[in-house]
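dumping this here before i forget
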Amino acid sequence: MSRPSAVPGAELARELAAVLRGEVRFGAAERTVYSHDASNYRQLPLGVVKPADLDDVRTALALCREYGVPVVARGAGTSIGGQAIGPGAVVLDFRRHLGSVLDIDPEARTARVLPGTVLDDLQRAAKPYGLRFGPDPSTHSRCTIGGMIGNDSCGSHSLAWGRTADNVERLELLLADGTELTVGGPLTAAGRARLRSSPGRVGQLHTRLQEFTDRNLATIRRGMPQLPRRTSGYPLDALLPEQGHDLARA
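structure:
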């Protein structure tokens, strides 16, 4: 059962602090620091949470959903379009505690990382294997992989090594309603059918998304602009069957 959205931030802060292992900061100073990113915008959040682990993220999201409070995920705050701020939102700062390179597989040429991992930290971990993450934006010393995925970051070598979307194999997602799922393509017709038959909310999401794509094939094929880069959620053409219905890329 959801609570009224007008519940004061102090009450939400108390509940968050009681159950989270990470930091809960709803004071004026912290809210002011997180009221801006690299853009010209200034919007005061309701408060800031620095989750200690992924369970903290799940719990914080569930409580904010119960209170009807929006959530904004934040990495380094290098966004120039205001993507890392939100008026009246709880900002989840992934950089503070969730910035680890979990493992590197030299043979598969892949790495598993947490969303707050700074790009340069990943590059240093990959260098002994003769590997690197392709995109290299000018903010490489501080931008996080999660933010790069949200922004489809590129950089001076993106023509040679691709944008972030070209270098993501799989995403483990936590959706606003608490649903967790793993996506990554490309998919065959049999693979798409298998996802549709997944139990519960996950199968429902895959079914509706595939139905949306099938219903709008002509529009997506003809109507999507041929731009070299689009931020997350806008490359709908990645969902076309000939593109492998690649949800991670989309």
